[in-house]
Design goal:
Hypothetical protein af1432, hydrolase, globular, mainly alpha, 18 helices, about 60% helix
Length: about 375
C-alpha cells in the first residue's frame, strides 16, 4: 500500500499508552482495527439506533451498519489520496462505540442526567470505551489502541475535558484541542465520511419509512441534480431503483469532490509529514459548492425527518427510558451488576452502564426496574 509523505505511517506511530512488542504480520493500525472488531462494544452497535429505534424495522440503519458504511467510504477516499486505509478503517469502526441507546436523544438525556457530575458526550465516551471500559486483556484496561486511532475517535472535546485529558496524559489526545491543531488527515477524512454516509442513508431510511417522500426531496438541489441525471439515462426509472441510483450518484460525486478539494488544499499547504498536516488548517474538505449543497441537505433532513412528529414521539420515549433508568440506578446501585455498583464514582458508573446498553436491553431493563412498559 503506497502512502503519501503526509499520511500516518504505522512505523512512525506515537505508540500505545502501554508499550507492546510489534506484531509479526500486522501493522499497529491493523491491530487496532482487529481489536475494535472483536470488542464487546462493537458487537452491541448492531442493536443501537441510528435514526429509527431498533424495534421499528429490520431494514433501517443501525450504528453498526453506519460504521461499516463510513469505513467503506473512508477507505475509498484514502486510497486515492495516499492516506492510511487501515487507520481510516479503525477510526471509522470505533467512532460510535460510546453512543447511547436511542441515538442522539439518548445522549442528550444522559448528558442532562450527568449535569453536575461531568456531563456526557459520546465522542469522549467512545474514547473511554477503548481506553478503560473494555475488559479483554490481563495487563491493562481497555484495548490499548495506538495514539493515532484514539486521536481520530475523539472528534470533539470541550476545553475543560481536553485539559483533564492532558493532565492525565501529557502530550496525549487532548493536547490538540488546547493548541488548536487538527487531527491526522485520516481522522479528518473519517469526520467527512461520517457526514456523507449519514446524509445518504438517512434519505434512504426516511423514504423507506414513509416519513419523507420523493416529492419532498424536490426541495433538495443536490438530490434533484442526480435524480434528473438518472432519469436522463433511464427515463422510465421509478420507485426504489430511482431512489437507489440517485443516492449512488450523490455518494460518488461527493467522494470525487472530497478527493479533488483535498488535493487542492494539500497542493496549497504542501505538508511533508503527518505532523505538518496537523498544524495546517483542515485539509480534508468539500469544495465550497458541495459544502453548501451538503448543508442544504442536512437542513432538510433536520426539519423533515429528525424533527418529524413520529420520530419525536419515539425519541421522547427513549429519553424517558434513559432518565428513569438513571434515577433508578442512582437510588439503588445494587440494581446494576456488582462491578458497576461497587465503583466509587456512582454517577459515572451509572452513565457507563446505560451508555453500553443496546436499545432493546434498555427497554427490557427499564421495564424490570420500573414495572412500566414504555414501548
Amino acid at each position: 500500500m503506497w502512502l503519501a509523505p503526509y499520511a500516518s505511517h504505522p512505523e512512525q506511530t506515537k505508540g500505545r499508552r502501554h508499550p507492546e512488542p510489534a506484531a509479526p504480520t500486522r501493522s499497529d493500525f491493523q491491530r487496532d482495527r482487529d481489536r475494535i472488531v472483536h470488542s464487546t462494544a462493537f458487537r452491541r452497535l448492531v442493536y443501537k439506533t441510528q435514526v429509527f429505534l431498533n424495534h421499528e424495522g429490520d431494514l433501517f440503519r443501525t450504528r453498526l451498519t453506519h460504521s461499516l458504511e463510513v469505513a467503506q467510504l473512508g477507505r475509498s477516499v484514502a486510497r486515492s489520496l495516499g492516506l492510511n486505509e487501515d487507520l481510516v478503517e479503525a477510526i471509522a469502526l470505533a467512532h460510535d462505540l460510546g453512543h447511547t441507546p436511542f441515538g442522539h436523544a439518548g445522549q442528550d438525556a444522559l448528558n442532562a442526567c450527568m449535569q453536575g457530575h461531568g456531563g456526557f458526550e459520546h465522542n469522549l465516551q467512545s474514547l473511554r470505551v477503548v481506553d478503560k471500559l473494555e475488559e479483554r486483556y490481563l495487563g491493562y484496561d481497555g484495548l490499548n489502541l495506538s495514539f493515532e486511532t484514539r486521536e481520530g475517535i475523539l472528534k470533539h472535546c470541550s476545553r475543560a475535558h481536553a485539559e483533564a485529558l492532558e493532565k492525565h496524559e501529557p502530550g496525549g489526545v487532548g493536547r490538540r484541542f488546547i493548541k488548536g491543531h487538527q487531527p491526522s488527515l485520516e481522522a479528518q477524512l473519517c469526520n467527512l465520511a461520517d457526514e456523507i454516509a449519514y446524509n445518504a442513508h438517512d434519505i434512504d431510511d426516511g423514504v423507506r419509512s414513509g416519513l419523507i417522500t420523493m416529492e419532498q426531496l424536490e426541495a433538495v438541489p443536490l438530490f434533484v441534480r442526480f435524480r434528473d441525471e438518472t432519469l436522463s439515462e433511464f427515463p422510465h426509472a421509478k420507485g426504489r431503483r430511482l431512489l437507489f441510483d440517485t443516492i449512488r450518484r450523490m455518494l460518488s460525486q461527493q467522494v470525487y469532490d472530497v478527493i479533488d478539494a483535498t488535493r487542492a488544499q494539500i497542493a496549497e499547504h504542501l505538508p511533508v509529514t503527518a505532523d505538518e498536516a496537523r498544524r495546517c488548517p483542515p485539509l480534508v474538505r468539500f469544495s465550497a459548492s458541495m459544502r453548501e449543497a451538503s448543508t442544504q441537505l442536512k437542513r432538510f433532513l433536520f426539519k423533515e425527518l429528525y424533527r418529524h412528529p413520529q420520530v419525536n414521539e419515539m425519541t421522547a420515549k427513549g429519553r424517558r427510558v434513559i432518565t428513569e433508568l438513571f434515577e433508578a440506578y442512582v437510588a439503588d446501585p445494587k440494581a446494576m451488576p456488582a462491578d458497576y455498583a461497587a465503583r466509587e464514582d456512582l454517577h459515572r458508573a451509572v452513565a457507563d452502564y446505560i451508555a453500553g446498553m443496546t436499545d432493546r436491553f434498555a427497554v427490557k431493563e427499564h421495564e424490570r426496574v420500573t414495572g412500566e412498559r414504555v414501548f
